[in-house]
Amino acid sequence: MAQVRPYVRPMKGWWRRNPYFVRYMIREVSSVFVAIYALTLLVGLVRLTQGEAQYEAWRAALANPLSILFHGVAFLFLSYHAYTWWLVAPKTAPDLRIGKKPVPDRAISAGGWAATLGATIVVFCLVRWM
After folding, report:
1. Boundaries of domain holding 129
2. CA 79, CA 116: separation in Å to the nearest integer?
3. DSSP label at 12?
4. Helix, strand or coil for residue 110?
5. Which three-class secondary structure state does DSSP give residue 102?
6. Residues 97 and 103 sit within 8 Å (Cβ to Cβ)
7. Residues 88, 64 within the same domain
8. In the chain, how many domains are there?
9. What is the CATH number of the domain that holds 61?
10. For residue 100, what is the DSSP state?
11. Is residue 4 part of a domain?
């Protein structure tokens, strides 16, 4: 009698065949850039506590062309991460209702974008006026 072998799905590159999973994996990679950028800012904060010379050395390191390239790539990934975050927000939000009508997904996403834009403007104005 022949031995029946169980089906084993091939694992190599399976996610590349489905556009949904490709977008999901790009979002996951973007979170690595979010973490690296957060660590970069944290190092700057530590250098600021160590004195002016250390802080200026950190700022000089950021002027390196490789650092500028990283910041450009990180900006693209962070933008994609923010974009997908607000697309997912309505799906993860609790059942939001105004009266008896559910709040449309577009309204939740638009509110998130408006809050992001408003916070960006406030921070920009505060930095300019300080």
Report:
1. 95-130
2. 12
3. T
4. helix
5. strand
6. yes
7. yes
8. 2
9. 1.20.1300.10
10. T
11. no
CB atoms within 10 A of CB 95: 6
Task: Write down the pTM of the prediction.
Answer: 0.71
Residues 114 and 77 in one domain: no
pLDDT digits (tens, 9 = 90+) for 9-40: 777 777 788 888 888 889 999 999 999 999 99
Q: Are residues 22 and 58 in the same domain?
A: yes
pLDDT score of 1: 64
Q: How far is CA 27 from the centre of its chain?
A: 7
Within a domain: 1: no
How high is the mean pLDDT in each 10-residue block of the chain (130 residues)? Answer: 81 81 89 94 95 95 94 92 86 85 89 90 90
Do 83 and 110 reside in the same domain of the chain?
A: no
Specify if 7 maps to a domain.
no
Q: What is the pLDDT of residue 90?
A: 86
pLDDT score at 85:
86
Tokens, residue 95: 């059942």
Same domain, 64 and 99: no
pLDDT at 16: 82
Given a contact cutoff of 8 angstroms between Cβ atoms, the answer to whether 101 and 95 are in contact is no
